[in-house]
Design a protein that fits this description.
The chain has strands at residues 29-34, 37-43, 51-52, 54-55, 73-76, 83-86, 100-101. With 103 residues, it is mainly beta. The strands form 2 sheets. It has a 5-stranded antiparallel beta sheet with strand order 4-2-1-5-6, with no helix packed on it.
Length: 103
Amino acid sequence: ESHLSLCSKDDALEPATFFSDSASSIIDELPVFILDTSLGAAKSPSTGDSFIRTVDASGFYKDTRGRLRRGDLIRIGHPDTGETFRVSTDLSRDFTDSIIPFG
């Protein structure tokens, strides 16, 4: 299990930076944020996905529907600079205990 730090371990006001020395490095879980707090981690997100699955620190699916509604904005990867997505408002798309659809 790996986590990316948001700040330096020695100075909370200094952003942390992640550099990989290997092209084969794979980040399996990226943090997911609503615009003011963390929701958990996204399980195996990929470019072009139309939804994400959220998991807790143990890797179990995490139901975020109590804190997240259709139309809300979420940010993936970094709370300030991560990509921002809107939760789908299309009621025909699944929004379940393990799936957050993008709009």
